[in-house]
Amino acid sequence: MEALDSPSVTQTVLYHLARIPGAVHRDTLAEAAGTTPDYAGRILGQLVKRGRVARVGRGLYKLSVNVRDEEA
């Protein structure tokens, strides 16, 4: 049940990517998720491999698919 009480780092990173318009720096996401920039970078790398996040510059990431685009 603990996992339901607190969101994972991955969920928190995705939440902040969706909430902040445009590209977001890895360090900003790490701070928002309460983790280190290195760990956030590993999480973001996994999300890029899965196609959920796009790397748009050095340390800059954005969601690769807009939720509204999927619903249409």
Automatic annotation (TrEMBL):
InterPro entries: WH_DNA-bd_sf. This is Uncharacterized protein.
